[in-house]
Specification:
Layout lengths: L1 H9 L13 H9 L3 H7 L4 H5 L15 E4 L2 E5 L7 H7 L4 H12 L1 H16 L4 H11 L5 E8 L3 E4 L5 E4 L2 E9 L2 E7 L5 H17 L4 E8 L4 H10 L2 E4 L2
Parallel strand pairs: 7-8, 8-9
Antiparallel strand pairs: 1-2, 3-6, 4-5, 6-7
Helix pairs in contact: 1-6, 5-6, 6-7
Length: about 240
């Protein structure tokens, strides 16, 4: 078994997790969504696109995920890390993202060190206030489902040298919270300001265009809010959460 061989070679512990279909949403929210901002800086695409179909809005797929965990938090996982795909494919063309990756780690000691250095470098940069606010808000949510960094808008279609298309330049919503019959489209800013109010209004309308059958509400999460701006914002934004 490749994981056992890696453990013996590098003294790295591992765990295998079995889960049911009903567990997927909870695992996705608890271990991936809550870390989305950090993980998106480590990976080559955001967490929702890496683990969900339909460009990040469909079914959740976490079978075959190999994650590096530190202090009970995921700091890296294989899906969505495309920069070394060709290297992994050289080790196993049928299952490059799993078997190919593990064989690469086993056979190239410097590769694992390089990967860990990348993670450490990003961690040293530290969390931004924006990330802290998002994580704090999500940690307080006990019901409903959460999606992070949800893209809306048409964007621009570009093509790589192989003719594969990719849409870029779409707007990115910090949090989409679905609770009961309502869907909250939420912008996160440290200071409530004109920009955040405008973004909340525009994102709500763009999201409604793509999800016409949902009861979409706008929202802003902030740490500070001037009373005059807050009073105006309440006229146009459905919900405002101030988190100290």
């Amino acid at each position: 078994m490749l994981l056992q061989k890696i453990k013996e070679k590098y003294s790295i512990d591992y765990e295998l997790f079995e889960f049911s279909k009903n567990d997927k949403q909870k695992i996705y929210k608890t271990h991936f969504v809550s870390r989305a901002r950090f993980l998106s800086r480590v990976l080559d695409e955001n967490v929702s696109k890496a683990l969900r179909s339909r460009g990040g809005r469909g079914h959740i797929y976490i079978h075959g995920v190999i994650a590096i965990v530190e202090n009970d938090q995921i700091v890296w996982f294989n899906m969505g890390y495309w920069r070394d795909y060709d290297k992994w494919k050289n080790y196993d063309s049928n299952e490059p993202m799993t078997i190919g990756f593990l064989k690469c780690v086993l056979n190239e000691p410097e590769y694992l060190k390089k990967l860990l250095r990348e993670i450490k470098f990003i961690k040293i940069k530290g969390k931004t206030t924006h990330e802290e606010l998002i994580e704090k808000f999500i940690s307080n949510i006990k019901v409903g489902t959460i999606e992070r960094e949800v893209e809306v808008g048409k964007g621009i279609v570009v093509y790589d040298k192989y003719g594969n298309s990719k849409t870029i330049g779409r707007y990115r919503i910090d949090i989409v919270w679905k609770i009961g019959t309502k869907t909250y489209v939420i912008e996160v800013k440290e200071q409530l300001n004109f920009e955040s109010i405008g973004q909340a209004i525009v994102y709500k309308e763009l999201y409604k265009q793509e999800h016409p059958h949902e009861d979409v509400k706008s929202g802003i999460v902030c740490r500070f809010a001037d009373k005059e701006i807050l009073d105006v914002a309440k006229k146009y934004v459905d919900n405002i959460w101030i988190i100290r």
